[in-house]
């Protein structure tokens, strides 16, 4: 078994089928040695799992778990794009978007759900640059969305 696949199994993470794009875009683009991944939503078993606004009914812990689901879906897209997750050399950057009420300032704590997952799965290669941005609304009413840029081996 490949190293990253073994690590996912050790963590008890089963990757879902990578979600198809919902509009006029692609799920990922490979350009040179970079894999650019479109934003992923917190979906599990084909259903959105974290809806609402942080600071207005959604807790930081629920948002964290939603961002973790986004991270799992990003890894599923990596697998779809690359076939072999061992081709991931480095998670370069995550962009986190948090649907939040005015005055909510814990966006970094929410996006940590995806960041922590990348380090759990990829080790030091999962350490990345990041943004965690508040938004007044996100697609389909989700609480969080995360995109990524990944360095890949040929």
Give the name of the CATH superfamily.
Answer: RutC-like
| Major beta sheet summary | 5 strands, mixed
Structural class: alpha/beta
Beta-strand share of residues: 25-35%
Which architecture name does CATH use? 2-Layer Sandwich
Strand order, largest beta sheet? 1-2-9-7-8
At the fold tier of CATH, the topology name is: 60s Ribosomal Protein L30, Chain: A
Shape, per Cα inertia axes: globular
The helix count comes to 3
For the secondary structure, the number of strands is 9
Q: Could you say how many structural domains there are in total?
A: 1
Helix amount: 25-40%
Helix and strand pattern = HEEEEEEHEHEE
Please tell me how large the radius of gyration is. 15 Å
Distance linking N and C termini: 20 Å
pLDDT < 50 runs, ≥5 residues: none
- The top-level CATH class is Alpha Beta
How confident is the prediction overall: mean pLDDT?
A: 97
